[in-house]
Amino acid sequence: MKIGVVGCAGRMGQMLVREIAATPGCTLAGGTERVGGPALGKDIGTLAGIDPLGVTAIDDAATLFAEADAVIDFTSPDATVRHAALAAQSQTVLVIGTTGIGPSQQEAIAQAATHTPIVQSPNMSLGVNLLLALVEQVGRALGDDFDVDILEMHHRHKVDAPSGTALGLGRAVAAGRGVNLEDVWQKVRDGHPGARPRGEIGFATLRGGDVIGDHTVVFAGDGERIELTHKASGRQIYAKGAVRAARWANDKKPGLYSMKNVLGM
């Protein structure tokens, strides 16, 4: 299976390249970087710190999509929307790990998925997706008798907040309760917001150091508290999950899938 990587010289892109190269049955179809970027024309294997792969970084995403069986995208929301359109045009599998995607951008991705298989998840790790399933079950079992807050911490360079994974966890709790997250979320508390309303799902965001990703979902009731936590110690878990998703989607019909589908959950 030929898998391409957009943003191949970035931190996540390099990990994806290494994972593809190390996965039996997979080869690197190619990789893209921004126009005028210093990585253009360089061997992608060398950029990733492994042996040369005989494939150089280019700035033409359309060419990459035309040559690949699947493309993995951990870039930016605007870029991901453009890549989804290219995937639909070439009927290439697309795996999306980009976070911070807005409603109109999500609509564009869903439209592209009517033409090609797209796997989208705010987090590609097995552990986080297990956590998503667990918090939905707990949210269903406890209902709004327990207050829920979601605490997340990431490195100082992360640009969106709350994280895509934190929002995904919030949506899982809301799904368990049978409500829409947007109707009950509280992303910021400051000043004198008053007493907490029943059913609210709160978020707290920390940024600092080189933290890869810590997420805790707190269910707080009268006299007891449940905390479910996932801590990532390496980004390679995301690369492994993304490559697994690409391989899984290779023979699937057009549609918008999640890691729950990939993992049979």
Description:
- NAD(+) binds at residues 7-12, 51, 97-99, 121-124.
- The chain is α/β, with parallel strands linked by helices and 265 residues long.
- Helix content is 38%, strand content 24%.
- The chain folds into 2 domains: 2-120 and 235-263, NAD(P)-binding Rossmann-like Domain (Rossmann fold), CATH 3.40.50.720; 126-232, Dihydrodipicolinate Reductase, domain 2, CATH 3.30.360.
- The chain contains 10 helices and 12 strands.
- The model has no long low-confidence stretch (mean pLDDT 96).
What topology does this entry show?
Layout: E1 2-6, H1 11-22, E2 27-32, H2 44-47, E3 57-58, H3 61-67, E4 70-73, H4 77-90, E5 93-96, H5 103-112, E6 117-120, H6 126-142, E7 147-154, H7 164-177, H8 181-184, E8 185-186, E9 201-207, E10 213-221, E11 224-232, H9 236-249, E12 255-257, H10 259-262
Parallel strand pairs: 1-2, 1-4, 2-3, 4-5, 5-6, 6-12, 7-9, 8-9
Antiparallel strand pairs: 7-10, 10-11
Helix pairs in contact: 1-9, 3-4, 4-5, 6-7
CATH class of the largest domain: Alpha Beta
pLDDT averaged over residues: 96
Q: Per CATH, what is the topology of the largest domain?
A: Rossmann fold
- List segments where confidence is low: pLDDT < 50 over at least 5 consecutive residues: none
The total count of strands amounts to 12
Sheet-strand content, in percent, reads 15-25%
Distance between the termini: 24 Å
Number of helices: 10
Q: What is the level-2 CATH architecture name of the largest domain? A: 3-Layer(aba) Sandwich
Structural class: alpha/beta
Helix content: 25-40%
What is the global morphology?
A: elongated
Biggest sheet overview = 7 strands, parallel
CATH superfamily of the largest domain: NAD(P)-binding Rossmann-like Domain
Radius of gyration: 19 Å
